[in-house]
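Need tokens for this chain, all 346 residues.
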Amino acid sequence: MNSVVDYYGDAEGVLIEPDQPEAPPRHSSFPTLSIKRILTTFHPHNEPGGRIEYIYRVAEEVKRIRPDILVIFCTYSLPVLFKLHPRPPFVIYYAIELTSPYGQFDIVMGRHINSLVDLIIYPEENRAVIDAQLCGFRDVPIVILFNCANSLEDSFNILSPEARNGRILYAGTIDIIQTCFDYFLHEKMQHIAVDLFGKPSGIYKEKTQHALSNLKGAVRYLGYVDGQQLRELRKAYCYSIIIWRPLDDNHFYACPNKFFEAIADGVPPITAPHPQCKMLVNRYKCGIVMRDWSFDAFYEALQQGVKIYGTTHYAEMVENCRKAVIQELNWEKQFEKINPYLKEVR
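Here are the structure tokens for all 346 residues:
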């Protein structure tokens, strides 16, 4: 949204979001945008009717604003488009998530947007292929923008390999089922220096919380920190672990922000073989890819990382992270991909 506003110079950017009690506002982080939170009687994600109420109120707000450019984020918000008559002059559908997990209604809805959108954006190409086949997208440009939140200038602000703390970072969702938290509890892991940051979640949340409070050996839990704190802390680590169990297409075709954030901070990722992560690590030689999602593969990859830490090979991986950001993995470079389409309504 900031990039669209910057592109048009004198444009005004309005961001509409659901009011979620568990997700407090971060409006001060985006001073160039007018941000409006929509309060609903029912929780917009967790309760039946919450989404319907949110969509209705957003549609009324969009009608009031009458934007020249409308960006719809995710199929969750897509019904708004069907309530706008006429539709805005230029509509971007930013498909952050796959359609299929939302169910048959959203799949059918996706089959009726060809004449309603001017550009579709996906963060991962396999997701784009799956949705295009499922929803029958046709005659609408589809662009892949990697989930790079960092700026090009971030590649010049990394810590030298010699100044790292010698530990491995895991930051994100801590879940026994989704993110392999059980791997960190394995006896073999007790001599691997790993720091965990994040919040326990999932159906075994209480069990996970108990395990975090009783960690032993070299694995430590250091609680939850916000994005800015994490970025400052991450730079001192030697690697960052990226892994989700491939439970479904969303998890298998992961395109995680933290993968790109680690590379931007010069911290080589140790990643499970999610296709996009594997492709980019192999392209730039900037990390380590696990052979599969098993514990043995996880442990072997971490052992490999520990073995080469402090060597010239490790220093080359850090430098390759910097090169990857300069060449491709920065937001400015990604946003350039949609410039030709934005110019059509300039």
